[in-house]
């Protein structure tokens, strides 16, 4: 729930920051409510935020839309899509297949004239792939971004003039190029007339997503609009892999079988030895050396290798392939990688959301998506902000 390691908890315990008060491993609810590190888990307004609805029709445009995780979450929050741009043909087919009424613009964002959408969109969003900037002359202005995909997002913001612009990205953007990349992004948005809400890395498991995924969100509001934005409060109900794959609070039925890769005979023999929640360290010493090869002698925990998921924990962050050696995602009981439908549920896509393309393309679409429930929570916060206008 805290998103920290056992080692960090142990350090907190030794230093007196957070010491268990029931047993060496058990913390009381009263203690957690009072501690500054954990109070946020209880002091939330999740249930109240569920009732937020638009006071009028709010419109949204999206760049780098992928397979629709963010778009679907915003739709659930009450937004009406005006356009979605995506270059990947399989992702575009997924969007059209599930929402024939959506205006899907397939192709390079550099080729789009956004003038048709000027002053017609309340919210512009995008999971912008952010490269480092040149810093020519250290002006840190609009021209510094030219040639990058963020420049195209900024060009769209400047042309469309949405009330709110939001960037979604990996949490690594915070430290990318020593923090310079994010600073340039904020400087440029300020330069073109937007006030910046401090960025925040949100943990998906706090928004009823059964996955330990983290994403960075940055919100910018047109300066003349004197409104406030606050990120969604966390839910105190943490979903697990069991919630994703079994009938329960998230889904009415158990997950259905679907396509997915299989292990080689020797790989299956090795993975059969790994218990739920275990990894390569759970293997016999000689098998560890066999499986890890040169990595055996390297530092770091490498706990993603030979990793079997646990029913009663959220899934590790999904990658674009469930069987990569460095980021193994093995089913908790059956010795096989997670299947497509299991991937989709862990990202909280509904079962009737159908993906297009070969399995490799589908895994990539799902692995790169914003979890739908997380997007829905952020969408409600955006609606609450727009309702103030």
Question: TL;DR of this structure?
Answer:
This protein is an alpha/beta fold and 389 residues long.
Question: How would you describe what is shown here?
Answer:
- The protein has 389 residues and is α/β, with parallel strands linked by helices.
- It has two domains: 58-239 and 373-386, 3-Layer(aba) Sandwich (Rossmann fold), CATH 3.40.50.150; 241-367, Alpha-Beta Complex (DNA Methylase, Chain A, domain 2), CATH 3.90.120.
- 29% of the residues lie in helices and 13% in strands.
- The protein has helices spanning 6-15, 29-34, 46-49, 69-77, 89-98, 149-160, 180-191, 241-245, 265-271, 285-292, 340-346, 359-367, 372-386, and strands at 58-63, 79-86, 104-106, 123-126, 164-170, 194-203, 211-212, 214-222, 315-316.
- The strands form two sheets. It has a seven-stranded mixed β-sheet, sandwiched between helices. Strands 7-9 form a two-stranded parallel sheet.
- β4 (123-126), α6 (149-160) and β5 form a beta-alpha-beta unit.
- α4 crosses α13 (372-386).
- The longest helix has 15 residues, at 372-386.
- It starts with 5 loop residues before the first helix and ends with a helix.
């Amino acid at each position: 729930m805290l998103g920290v390691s056992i080692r960090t908890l142990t350090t907190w315990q030794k230093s007196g920051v957070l010491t268990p008060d029931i047993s060496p491993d058990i913390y009381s609810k009263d203690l957690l409510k009072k501690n500054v590190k954990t109070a946020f888990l209880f002091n939330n307004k999740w249930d109240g935020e569920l009732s937020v609805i638009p006071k009028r029709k709010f419109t949204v445009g999206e760049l780098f839309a992928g397979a629709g995780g963010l778009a679907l979450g915003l739709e659930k929050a009450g937004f009406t899509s005006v356009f979605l741009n995506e270059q990947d043909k399989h992702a575009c087919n997924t969007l059209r297949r599930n929402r024939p009424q959506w205006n899907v613009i397939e192709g390079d964002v550099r080729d789009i004239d956004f003038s048709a959408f000027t002053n017609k969109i309340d919210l512009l969003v995008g999971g912008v792939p952010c490269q480092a900037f040149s810093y020519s002359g250290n002006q840190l202005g609009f021209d510094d971004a030219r040639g990058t995909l963020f420049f195209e997002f900024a060009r769209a913001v400047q042309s469309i003039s949405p009330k709110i612009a939001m960037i979604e990205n990996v949490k690594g953007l915070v430290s990318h190029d020593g923090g310079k990349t994010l600073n340039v992004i904020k400087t440029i948005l300020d330069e073109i007339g937007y006030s910046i809400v401090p960025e925040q890395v949100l943990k998906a498991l706090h928004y009823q997503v059964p996955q330990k995924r983290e994403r960075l969100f940055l919100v910018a509001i047109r300066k003349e609009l004197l409104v406030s934005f606050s990120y969604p409060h966390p839910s105190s109900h943490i979903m697990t892999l069991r919630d994703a794959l079994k009938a329960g609070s998230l889904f009415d039925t158990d997950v259905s079988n679907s396509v997915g890769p299989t292990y080689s005979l020797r790989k299956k023999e090795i993975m059969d030895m790994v218990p739920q929640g275990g990894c390569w360290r759970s293997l016999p010493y000689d098998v560890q050396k066999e499986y890890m090869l040169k990595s055996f002698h390297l530092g770091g925990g490498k706990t993603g290798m030979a990793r079997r998921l646990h029913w009663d924990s959220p899934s590790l962050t999904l990658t674009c392939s469930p069987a990569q050696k460095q980021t193994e995602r093995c089913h908790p009981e059956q010795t096989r990688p997670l299947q497509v439908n299991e991937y989709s549920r862990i990202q909280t896509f509904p079962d009737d959301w159908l993906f297009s393309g070969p399995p490799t393309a589908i895994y990539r679409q799902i692995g790169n998506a914003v979890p739908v429930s997380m997007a829905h929570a952020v969408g409600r916060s955006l609606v609450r902000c727009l309702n103030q206008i």
